[in-house]
Write a structure and sequence with these properties.
Blueprint: H1 5-8, H2 18-28, E1 34-35, H3 47-58, H4 71-85, E2 94-97, H5 100-111, E3 117-122, H6 128-134, E4 138-143, H7 154-164, E5 168-172, H8 184-197, E6 200-204, E7 229-234, H9 235-238, E8 247-250, H10 253-265, H11 272-282, H12 285-308, E9 314-315, E10 323-327, H13 335-346, E11 348-349, E12 351-352, E13 363-367, H14 372-390
Helix pairs in contact: 3-11, 4-11, 5-6, 7-8, 12-14
């Protein structure tokens, strides 16, 4: 018996998650660690949302739910998107998905035929290339540069599209792992390239409620982009509902109809009681979302104070999301080696920059996902450890 090349080659090789998995094994064995690895909010889902989920289940919403989403939730998401972006959005423009990752898969399945190229920007969230491989596409990274604040250059995008006959471009702002928020001028340049090439733009906007500096602009709101942009949203980060697995795709109504057909053949939708809880969560308003984002804002401010008091480590623009990307090249180590040695010496687990592409080599990503005092202590020890290595 054999296995398909699509599945065996999904991850593309490499050691992207080795430090994380080793830290998990250490924790399972009873070792005391500080986990600053994955984007799991430490707040937990609000009791009111869990209560709404429980009541919906007790009311009988435990059977097959409507595909591509119950009407109430699609309407709620459409109103939210229209209010936040200024773009007219109808329920027919909304597809409910079991989280952001299935939305990434679905949008690339829509945009790419087998063998066609999907572009994404480096640094990148680690599942991006595997997602493109998973639909039979060919993933091609377009590097951004630290000296540009990790913002893409329009000329690089145009050249990559032409060289690979690419059919889609995936972007992510606020960005994981860099924390960069793309300004409107950069998004306008990206939009111009996409319109000129006649390709799909897939915009991962799951961190749109975590903006610390600047403002979030959805490229779907730019001229001529609503008909060629697929926006991915999720409640995992904005409402601390990672385990509930509920997200969405926003796009042209014809595209959403095709995605509904894909869901019939794959996920068969999202449980109704979870969708009802999601609709309730979205009615809690911006104040509720700001309250959930507040711990990450506080920790980011504390981190900038600590980093600003030394001259060994530098950081990427920490404008949004729940991460810091730290440049540790002054230690003489790669991100992978630094993360391994930090875990051994200090029992602090971070993600190597190499987990997110070659543009992030020589960096580590720090998730701001533990209590304030634990986070500040861990970051201070990380900085001290880097200083010892540099010395």
């Amino acid at each position: 018996m054999g296995y398909s090349d699509r599945i065996t080659g999904l991850a593309g090789g490499g050691a992207a998650w080795d430090v994380f998995f080793r830290a998990q094994r250490m924790a399972a064995a009873g070792e005391e660690l500080t986990m600053l690895t994955i984007g799991e909010p430490d707040i937990g889902t609000a009791p009111a949302i869990l209560d709404a989920m429980h009541k919906a289940a007790e009311a009988g919403n435990t059977g097959y739910a409507s595909i591509p989403g119950i009407a109430h939730l699609r309407e709620t998401v459409a109103r939210r998107v229209a209010a936040r972006t200024g773009v007219e959005t109808a329920p027919e423009n909304v597809m409910i998905t079991p989280g952001g990752q299935p939305a990434l898969f679905a949008t690339h399945a829509l945009a790419l035929d087998p063998g066609q190229t999907g572009l994404y920007l480096d640094p990148f969230y680690s599942t991006y290339p595997g997602t493109i491989r998973g639909v039979g596409g060919v993933p091609v990274a377009v590097a951004t540069r630290a000296e540009d604040g990790f913002l893409p250059r329009a000329a690089d995008l145009a050249a990559a599209i032409a060289a690979h006959d690419a059919k889609s471009l995936l972007i992510n702002s606020p960005n994981n792992p860099t924390g960069v928020v793309y300004p409107e001028a950069t998004l306008a340049e990206i939009a111009g390239v996409v319109r000129e090439a006649g390709i799909w733009l897939i915009s991962d906007e799951v961190y749109d409620t975590q903006i610390w500096d600047g403002s979030h602009v959805s490229p779907r709101s730019l001229p001529g982009m609503a008909e060629r942009t697929l926006v991915i949203g999720s409640l995992s980060k904005s409402h601390a509902m990672t385990g509930s697995r509920v997200g969405w795709v926003i796009g042209p109504d014809e595209a959403i109809a095709h995605l509904g057909n894909l869901a019939i053949h794959t996920t068969f939708g999202v449980p109704g009681y979870i969708q009802e809880a999601a609709a309730f969560a979205l009615t809690q308003g911006p104040e509720f979302e700001a309250e959930l984002a507040a711990p990450f804002r506080r920790r980011r401010e504390a981190a900038l104070r600590l980093i600003g008091a030394q001259n060994i480590l530098r950081h990427a623009p920490a404008q949004g999301a729940m991460y810091l990307l730290l440049d540790i090249r002054a230690t003489g180590l790669s991100g992978q080696d630094f993360a391994e040695r930090l875990l051994d010496a200090e029992r602090i687990a971070v993600m190597p920059g190499e987990s997110f592409g070659q543009a992030a080599a020589g960096h580590v990503r720090v998730a701001m996902t533990v209590a304030d005092d634990l986070f500040e202590d861990a970051l201070a020890r990380l900085i001290a450890f880097a200083g010892e290595l540099a010395a």
